[in-house]
Design brief:
By secondary structure, the protein is mainly α. The protein has 3 domains: 7-106, Fumarase/aspartase (N-terminal domain) (Fumarase C, Chain B, domain 1), CATH 1.10.275.10; 111-355, Fumarase/aspartase (Central domain) (Fumarase C, Chain A, domain 2, Up-down Bundle); 360-456, Orthogonal Bundle (Ribonucleotide Reductase Protein R1, domain 1), CATH 1.10.40. Helix content is 59%, strand content 5%. It contains 18 helices and 6 strands. β1 and β2 (159-165) form a beta hairpin. The termini are far apart. Bound molecules: arginine. Residues 24, 28, 84, 110-111, 114, 318, 320, 322-323 line the site of arginine.
Length: 464
């Protein structure tokens, strides 16, 4: 009556408005390759256990390969009457193979099928995004040799704090993106299990072999509980959470470089090929890519929020609500991929303005903490040393000079331990050199970490 694959029990055709409202093919068609791969593995298993013949399996495989090609060449007939990508592919298979096509859905349901497709899709997306993250890390490490001698002001509260080596800054981002890669790799372990064969929710009475399908699709194992498996979308939550953290890291970097590239900071020149102009103000060269990276973070966080709310309070097992999981997952992955694709060349090509940076380093008493530590080494209690140096900063500020602009007599008056050697602790260069603790910005520490990263990222010794 309805002309639908599921229409047997209906005595009224579907309302057009319902077709438009319930379809998902407009967005789930991008699962086609994974859907076909899973169907081929499923058919091969059906043949292996004797639910279809080897000849039938071969017919199905060939027809599915043909359909894949037609979709790729834009020759495949899509229409919302066929609801989703699964029904489209199956309907055309049945059109072409008749009863043989009608056997493919043996021992499975769209519920376990769509979960499997999503697992396959996310697994590929994780691998692509991991590649892009590695490329971005290489861009950071690739800058380290050229920027080796550059000292930047380090900030807390966005107020000048202590000087740090530029490569120390760059490697900070390597660490952040490494945690992102680790998070994605960890999520991938839970993504990479097979849902197929749990059927609608209860499993099947047919003699299927789930482990066989898992092996064919490169899954590490099979899900244990059919009810859990049909309803589980944790793997999507984890994936998109990991993406949201990637986006957060990108937006921190983007914000920082937007600031650094202003005339007010003047630390950084962005490549003009990665900037855009204003339609009214002729002088403008704007950091729009960085701003969009910062802005697109909102979309990824929104996707995570959408998914969390989507699954909240759903009773077991499958509910149609779950169809709504796809747009946010696809959008989050697309967005992060696009941002990473722009980030890597921007990182490689931006140039530090060494003169502007050097001028800034001598302002703001960035060496005050090192002077305090000089006193601590000479036995002055930390709180006392902190107070003394604070008073010296106050004095220097009043006179409009850096700490090194105070006289030896002024140092001596502050504390007997502040002899001529105190001057050796002053200045950005010496402050950086004084650092020795593990993970600090000291040159030896940073050089060791650059070497570790190069090895880890498979970058050859000469590449900086
Ligand atoms: N398009 C559906 C989705 O994405 C496929 C599963 C439909 N299952 C069902 N019982 N109606 O969730």
């Amino acid at each position: 009556m309805t002309g639908k694959a599921w229409g047997g029990a209906f005595d009224e055709a579907t309302d057009r408005r319902v077709e438009r409202f319930t379809e998902s093919v407009s967005f789930d068609r991008r699962l086609y390759a994974h859907d076909i791969a899973a169907s081929i593995a499923h058919a091969q298993m059906l043949a292996k256990v004797g639910l279809i013949t080897a000849a039938e399996c071969q017919q199905i495989e060939q027809a599915l390969a043909q359909i894949r090609q037609e979709i790729e060449q834009d020759r495949f007939p899509f229409s919302i009457e066929r609801e989703d990508i699964h029904m489209h592919i199956e309907a055309v298979l049945v059109e072409r193979l008749g009863d043989v096509g009608r056997k493919l859905h043996t021992g499975r349901s769209r519920n376990d099928q769509v979960a499997t497709d999503m697992r396959l899709w996310v697994r590929d997306a994780i691998d692509r995004i991991d590649d892009r993250l590695a490329t971005l890390q290489q861009a950071w490490v690739g800058r380290c040799a050229a920027d080796a001698g550059v000292i930047l002001p380090g900030y807390t509260h966005l107020q000048g704090a202590q000087p740090v080596l530029a490569p120390h800054y760059w490697l900070a981002y390597c660490d952040k993106f490494q945690r992102d890669r680790d998070r994605l790799a960890d999520a991938r372990r839970r993504v990479n299990v097979l849902s197929l064969g749990t059927a609608a929710l209860a499993g099947t009475s047919l003699p299927i072999d789930r482990a066989d399908v898992a092996r064919r699709l490169g899954f590490d194992g099979v899900t244990a509980n059919s009810l859990d498996s049909a309803s589980d979308r944790d793997f999507l939550l984890e994936f998109v959470f990991a993406l949201a953290v990637v986006a957060e890291h990108l937006s921190t970097w983007a914000e920082e470089w937007i600031l650094w590239s202003t005339a007010e900071f003047g630390f950084l020149r962005l490549p003009q090929a990665f900037c855009t102009g204003s339609s009214i103000m002729p002088q403008k060269i704007n950091p729009d890519c960085l701003e969009l990276i910062r802005g697109k973070t909102a979309r990824v966080i929104g996707a995570l929020q959408t998914l969390l709310v989507l699954v909240k309070g759903l009773p077991l097992a499958y509910n149609r609500d779950l169809q709504e999981d796809k747009p946010p997952v696809f959008d989050a992955a697309d967005t992060v991929e696009a941002c990473l694709g722009i980030a890597a060349p921007l990182v490689s090509r931006a140039e530090l303005d060494r003169e502007a940076i050097a001028a800034r380093l001598e302002q703001g008493y960035l060496d005050a903490t090192t002077l305090m530590e000089h006193l601590i080494r000479r036995g002055v209690p930390q709180r006392t040393a902190h107070g003394l140096v604070g008073q010296l900063v106050r004095l220097a500020r009043k006179k409009g000079v850096p700490l090194s602009g105070l006289s030896p007599a002024e140092f001596q008056a502050a504390h007997a331990e502040l002899d001529q050697s105190a001057f050796d602790a002053l200045g950005a260069e010496r402050a950086v050199r004084a650092m020795t603790s593990y993970g600090s910005t000291g040159p030896e520490q940073v050089a060791a970490q650059v070497a570790t990263w190069k090895k880890r990222l498979g970058m050859n010794a000469g590449s900086g």
